[in-house]
Here is the input.
Amino acid sequence: MFKTKNLVHDVKDVPVTWVFEHYCNLKERLTGQDVKINSLFKKERTPSMCIYLCSKSGTYRFKDFSSGKGGSSVELVKQLHEKQYHQACQTIVEDYNDFVLHNNGSYDLQEFKVHSRYQVDSYSLRQWTSRDAYYWTQYNIASSLLEHYNVRPIDQYRMMKEEDNKTLHLVIKGLYIYGYFKSDGTLYKIYQPKTQDKTFLKVQSYIQGIEQIKKKKWLVITSSLKDLMSLKSLRLDVDVVAPDSENTMIPMQQMETWLETYHKVLILFDNDEAGINAMIKYKEKYPKVEPILLSMSKDLSDSIKDHGAKEVKMRLVPLLDRKISE
Here is the structure.
């Protein structure tokens, strides 16, 4: 262990682990592991805020999937207390010095341990059932669309990780488990709609729908493959893609190519704080991108489930036409 006994004057001298432990009121010390807690920005039943060790920077960061907020330790305090950057830095320094003075002048820095993560190791497929049909048709997604976008039902999958020189396995089996595959059969994501904690398991990065685009005049970016398929079910003359999640920016080179290729690139993300914030980020980075807000249910697929495909199409088409003609 290393001791930090002196008062500090610069936020760079405040341990990042202390910032997250203190402001997130963590019940455990950060030693290299990932931690999931309830959002500090929105009320929620299922924890969706992740505090994780970034492999690139070697330091802790956070991502709150319910609000779309994320970033460094300073960014956490900045957004949590609605301060300017320099004010957040000052707050952290003052709070840390106060902590040191009331804790015998020290904060023990823990040496980071290597915490491996479970990864999908293998899977087995099963046949489609009437239960699957009921689930997908709620969103106007028929078997032809599922086949076109390489969605297949999974019977079970196995996860594996190495820990303390041992290989640990975890087998997951359930009724509503679906694999998202590339055209070559490579699994890139597992979707478990009935599982609150792990609805999505990313196996590898992939722009969903990119293999099925037909080079139409217009491109719509949705927040998920389910929304993508629901939009395609409306039979609109557009190409549709989706990133890994609405909180994952599509690579700049790909976005710039699309902006040059298509007459218009539009973004249709979720009708909530996280989705709106994500659309704002795209608009700020790519001014030519046009966000579309469908003020119905949380997302496009839920809007179809709640209001019907005909009603959604009647509401959506004028929004698309307006953006396309601008």
User: Anything to note?
Assistant: The longest strand covers residues 151-163.
